[in-house]
Design goal:
Elements (H helix, E strand, L loop, with lengths): L3 E4 L2 H12 L4 E3 L6 E5 L3 H11 L8 E3 L14 H10 L4 E6 L6 H4 L4 E5 L4 H10 L3 E2 L14 H8 L5 E4 L10 E4 L6 E4 L5 H8 L3 E2 L28 E6 L2 H17 L4 E5 L12 E3 L6 H17 L4 E4 L7 H12 L4 E3 H4 L1
Parallel strand pairs: 1-8, 2-8, 4-6, 5-9, 10-11, 12-15, 12-16, 13-14, 13-15
Antiparallel strand pairs: 2-3, 3-7, 4-7, 5-6, 9-10
Helix pairs in contact: 1-5, 9-10
């Protein structure tokens, strides 16, 4: 299969719309990351997503819409959902609600719920309006790899696997949407993102956090949302998170890098802008300012992908406090590292 990468124009949007209506796949930009879309109510089309990504069948998908009226055939909407939609749609918030029968099991991983969101990216909205279909779309990367934030990232993973990639520039947020479930006793964040817990609680009151946000799924525990698998968002190299006091972390990273380099590894560090100079001899990769978690979130996946281009096999990373957007960053970093971490004081 030949994969076309086209700028988002009237003609390419028309081509994308036709492909989706025919049950084919199209990658497109959203404000969070690039998505790999198929007509959500076409079982065969949805199965092509899993084949192209190599995605496990027990990992549910998110259905993207451009108008709330589309939800009538997809899910049961409640008052809390309406309040969240008023506050955050279109935008990087996914809401899990009871599904309706028209939604194929392949979209929901056979759960009795479905995840829905309305993206804010102008190309995503233009595509959804053009095709007039609800589109199921996970991130447009090979399963387990860092999510793509540019069309070129998508091409690296999907060339020859899908017919079309729409280029809408670099994603703004850089991390996938926040996922909140509204089907339990209390609203619960299953995957943190740019819409933080505090922002949600300002609108609907108390919101809980899923225990699996900063740990692996336990044996028998189902993935109720995308992004909950044990190892996810991972580069080819082994990522280790370095935790502790700031000065200790910097010194520990120096020592760990030196040891790895002596052992013949292609090693590097992922560090804050403020520590680039202190770690200049450790092949540093700047993940953004320590004082600006949104910048770190924006850069994270592109940095992880860059490490694969450099064939890095040992990677040491700084961490951020798991608060606000920092919770989303640590959720992704934890899974990129398969939850491998070291206390800096134990290295010194």
């Amino acid at each position: 299969m030949k994969t076309q990468l086209l700028p988002a124009t009237e003609s390419s949007l028309a081509l994308a719309s036709r492909l989706l209506s025919e049950g084919q796949l199209v990658a497109f930009p959203t404000e969070t990351v690039y998505g790999l879309g198929a007509y959500a109510l076409n079982r065969d089309a949805v199965l092509r997503i899993f084949a192209a990504k190599g995605r496990p069948a027990d990992n549910p998908l998110i259905v993207h819409i451009h108008d709330r009226s589309e939800l009538d055939g997809i899910c049961e909407v409640n008052d809390l959902a309406l309040r969240l939609m008023d506050a955050f749609w279109p935008g990087p918030l996914t809401i899990i609600l009871p599904r309706k029968a028209a939604v194929p099991d392949e979209v929901t991983a056979k759960l009795d719920t479905v995840a829905v969101r309305m993206p804010s990216h102008p190309v995503a909205m233009a595509l959804l309006r053009a095709c007039k279909l609800p589109i199921a779309a996970p991130s447009a990367n090979r399963s387990g790899k860092p999510s793509p934030t540019t069309a070129q990232h998508v091409l690296e993973d999907m060339d020859g696997r899908i017919p079309l990639i729409l280029d809408g520039g670099e994603s703004d947020v850089g991390l996938e949407s926040t996922v909140i479930s509204l089907v339990g006793e209390k609203p619960c964040i299953l995957r943190p993102g740019g819409v933080t817990r505090a922002m949600l609680e300002d609108v609907i009151g108390e919101v809980s956090l899923a225990g699996s946000i900063l740990r692996p799924l336990q044996k028998g525990e189902k993935a109720l949302s995308p992004g909950m698998m044990y190892k996810h968002y991972a580069p080819d190299g082994q990522v280790t998170l370095i935790e502790g006091e700031e000065a200790d972390v910097v010194e520990a990273m120096r020592r760990l890098y030196a040891h790895a380099a002596e052992q013949g590894h292609r090693a590097c560090v992922m560090c804050f802008t403020e520590h680039i100079e202190a770690l200049r001899d450790c092949h540093p990769h700047d993940i953004g300012a320590q004082s600006n978690p949104s910048e770190v979130a924006h850069r994270l996946f592109a940095t992880l992908r860059g490490l694969d281009e450099e064939r890095m096999d040992v990677i040491f990373s700084e961490v951020v406090p798991p608060e606000g957007v920092g919770l989303a960053i640590m959720n992704r970093l934890g899974r990129a590292a398969a939850f491998r971490s070291v206390q800096a004081k134990d290295v010194l």
